[in-house]
Here is the input.
Amino acid sequence: MQVGGLVGRRHDDQRDEAGALCAMATTESRVSYEPMIYYGTGVTAGQRGDAEVTAESNGDLGNEARGDVAVHGLFKRGQTTILDICVMDTDANSYKQTASDKVLEKAAKRKKDKYLDACLERRRTFVPLIYSVDGMACKEARAWEKRVASLLASKMDRPYSEMCGFVRSRMSLAIVRSNTLLLRGQRAHRALRPVLEDGSSFTALGRARGW
Here is the structure.
């Protein structure tokens, strides 16, 4: 199943979905992809989080780290939030003795241990978006979904509960599409996702689906 880059495309599909939702909640100009977290030259061990700087290295780690999505003003005005996506198979043999929610929380902690300090030093917030292949999300991902839903509800004058369902459905469907892609091995580009710009779009969508 890992042949042909399809597993990587599952990650990229989640990244694109998260970025599209953030753009809907804020503006497209506030969203960028693959933001720099740190670069190998002249960083400290605390900024890197996974290695120590030795005397021989002269502070040059020869490495860099990037997030998946950067959103300006998502949680606080004037502050950038870095989102980092990970989709995990919680049914893998290595996780048999661990509850699925614990697997996700441990993965989120690993992400924060590695990148949180570097983001804070640059006055940024860091949010790991960890999902299982079944659509389960970690606590930070749920908090991000609620924040995006709150902004959408205010921007489009729709009920908060409706926007929560909309955001969670979009992220879950992105995983389902990717899982189907992994099974059937189709490598053609999928169709573009619909763009909903105001509350009237949700009214029309609801009528079409019989809400």
